[in-house]
């Protein structure tokens, strides 16, 4: 017999959100569905939580961009990415749109979109990245890079 307590049958549910997906499974696998459409916030007695994805195959990273630095201008054939800005404002490029995303902002980068993030501030900045689709670092096509990692591209 176990000494661990058993969950009460009458315990309140942890989720009050409908768990049935509102998309076709292949949409995420192909990197074609904007997962920001499925983000929700749930209230709890202790505060809230924000759910980004449920029961999907994804790759999750936290990216730290040092002050005065930026990632390459790039695109991916096999994945889309959702970014959540965590700490400080981050300079964002997605295709022809350029803006400064504030902490808490969610950014969707569709598959094959040109994109870049940078930090023009004076403190390191972090982003949570959730990649949807087949993840492989070799899927990065760099068009511009401050660190000479794409020798044929215009620097």
TrEMBL record:
InterPro entries: Man6P_isomerase-2_C (IPR001538), Mannose-6P_isomerase_type2 (IPR051161), RmlC-like_jellyroll (IPR014710), RmlC_Cupin_sf (IPR011051). The keyword NAD does not apply. Residues 13-35 have a biased composition (Basic and acidic residues). Residues 42-145 form the Mannose-6-phosphate isomerase type II C-terminal domain. CDD domains: cupin_PMI_typeII_C. GO terms for molecular function: isomerase activity; mannose-1-phosphate guanylyltransferase (GTP) activity. Pfam families: MannoseP_isomer (PF01050). The keyword Repeat does not apply. Residues 1-35 are annotated as: Disordered. One of its GO terms (biological process) is polysaccharide metabolic process. Signal peptide: none annotated. Keywords: Isomerase. PANTHER family: MANNOSE-1-PHOSPHATE GUANYLYLTRANSFERASE (PTHR46390). This is Mannose-6-phosphate isomerase.
């Amino acid at each position: 017999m176990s000494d661990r307590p058993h969950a009460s049958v009458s315990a309140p549910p942890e989720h009050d959100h409908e768990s049935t997906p509102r998309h076709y499974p292949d949409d995420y696998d192909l990197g074609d569905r904007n997962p920001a459409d499925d983000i929700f916030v749930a209230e709890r007695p202790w505060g809230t939580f924000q759910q980004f994805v449920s029961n999907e195959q994804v790759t999750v990273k936290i990216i730290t961009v040092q002050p005065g630095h930026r990632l390459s201008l790039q695109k991916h054939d096999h994945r889309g990415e959702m970014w959540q800005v965590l700490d400080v404002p981050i300079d964002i490029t997605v295709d022809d749109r350029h803006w400064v995303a504030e902490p808490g902002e969610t950014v969707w980068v569709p598959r094959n979109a040109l994109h870049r993030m940078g930090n023009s501030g004076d403190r390191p900045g972090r982003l949570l990245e959730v990649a949807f689709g087949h993840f492989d670092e070799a899927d990065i096509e760099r068009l511009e890079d401050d660190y000479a990692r794409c020798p044929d591209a215009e620097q």
